[in-house]
Amino acid sequence: PGSIPTSADGYSMKGKLNAKNWAATTMMPPALAGRIIGYYNGEYIGLPYDKNDFIVGKKATFGEGNAVDLGTNDDIGIGGGRKGEMEITKVDAAFVEGKFFFTADTKRAIKTLEVTAGFFRLPLPKDK
Questions:
Q1: What residues contact residue 108 under an 8 Å CB cut-off, 6+ apart?
Q2: Residue 32: in which H helix or E strand, if any?
Q3: Cα 55 to Cα 89: distance, rounded to the nearest angstrom
Q4: Cβ(10)–Cβ(25) under 8 Å?
Q5: Rounded distance, CA 5 to CA 90, Å?
Q6: pTM for the structure as a whole
Q7: What are the pLDDT tens digits along the chain (128 aa)?
Q8: 110-48-116 Cα angle (round to 5)
Q9: CB under 8 Å to 117, separation ≥6 — which residues?
Q10: H or E element: which one contains 30?
């Protein structure tokens, strides 16, 4: 509930999960979720969110205190990305865009998953 459909000129998140194309069909507004979250077919990617970091060229390295959330719809389920990076690539009057990559694993290290060629776009929050 509360998620917004993705579109060519609106909210967007996509990437490759172990070289397989993945594209969110809906996204949660970050102001509600506190993260940049995209959903597809029971799966999700959740990136750290801080509107103060929306500066072109700003990078965030993923680690223990700044991990990516990943939920898959396979027998393993949920993993976290603690190796990788997100970079803000564009900020204009209406939108922020960025790219990301990470390696996700489970707490028991049963499985790892490489997420590459990640991209997101979302409307800039309106200051009140």
A1: none
A2: helix 30-33
A3: 8
A4: no
A5: 21
A6: 0.91
A7: 789 999 999 999 999 998 999 999 999 999 888 999 999 999 999 999 988 889 999 999 998 788 899 988 877 666 788 899 999 999 999 999 999 999 988 766 677 889 999 999 999 866 64
A8: 55
A9: 14, 15, 16, 99, 101
A10: helix 30-33
Residue owning tokens 């564009």: 90
How many residues can be counted in the chain?
A: 128
| Token representation of residue 100 | 């990301």
Two tokens at 11? 């909210």
Q: Which residue type occupies 123? A: P
Structure tokens at 5: 């459909």
Residue with tokens 């922020």: 96
Which residue matches tokens 């998620």? Answer: 3
